[in-house]
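Hi R.,

Here's the chain you asked about this morning:
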Amino acid sequence: MPRTVYYTATTLDGFIATADHSLDWLLTRDNDGDGPMGYDDFIAEIGALAMGASTYRWLLDNHPDMEWPYAMPAWVFTHRTFAPRTDGADVRFTHDPVPVVHAEMTAAAGGKNIWIVGGGDLAGQFADHGLLDQICVSIAPVTLGSGRPLLPRRVELTLTELARNGEFACARFDVVRPG
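And the predicted structure, written out as tokens:
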């Protein structure tokens, strides 16, 4: 059964980015895409993805000449206005409710998993609606003291896997549903 997964990296003190959306703390770290809980195996199982406007903006600002990195359809949750893509990438801008978009994503994913790319509040919105199944997090050996939180709300989890990948401690958790 397809799962909705928040797959991300975080600092030891629980931030996915600095207050100004920098990922410098992450981009200098060693990990192996083919290693335990690595990106390569993960992305092969993804059929659709969602991200917030800040994550999308970060991609545009930090990689303006980069080809869109995802072959699967992507939903960007936003109230901002972005220019349409001209590179053929399937990027859909929405401000529809999470349950409505999740149904669209599930249909488009063709039996594969859905990836909540970021940010933490967007993952929390999926959790609020009972639509988040798993959190897979790589924990970097650095602290920021403040920034964008990993998941800014209470979500009960069950640890299902632990691994080391390069400098990262990796953990997979299933979301515990109430009742």
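The chain has five helices and ten strands.

Let me know if you need anything else.
M.
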